[in-house]
Amino acid sequence: MLHKISYTLIFYAGLIASRKFSDGPKEHTKVLNKVRSLGVKLRLSRNATLQVLKLMPSDADLKEASGRMFRISGRMYEETKPLERLRQTLTKSGDF
Asked: What is the DSSP letter of 92?
């Protein structure tokens, strides 16, 4: 799961951070749906046994990372990107 999220965020970083939604709505919609679906999968990937063994992040960390994925996708709609906040969100998403 994490490799899919990392790959998506890295591969589409230019599209997420720089382009206006109105410039490429088909590409944005594709990436937006992909980021959101990965956020949902991340949130639903809970495994209590692996969490007890510390092999998987806690529920709070999964919820926070999933929320960051939704914030990233939500910011794709904005015509003027808050680049510093978006960069911080992308950086902190990589910490999980």
From this structure: H
Cα 3 to chain centroid distance, Å, stands at 12
How does pLDDT run across 46-64, given as a tens digit for each residue?
888 988 998 888 999 999 9
pTM recorded for the entire structure: 0.72
* DSSP, res 22: G
The three-class DSSP label of residue 32 is helix
Tell whether the torsion through CA atoms of 10, 5, 1 and 58 is positive or negative: positive
Within 10 angstroms of residue 46's Cβ, the number of other Cβ atoms is 14
Lookup result for tokens 């949130």: 43
Look up residue 68 and give its two tokens.
């960051």
- Measured distance CA(15)–CA(31) in Å, rounded: 8
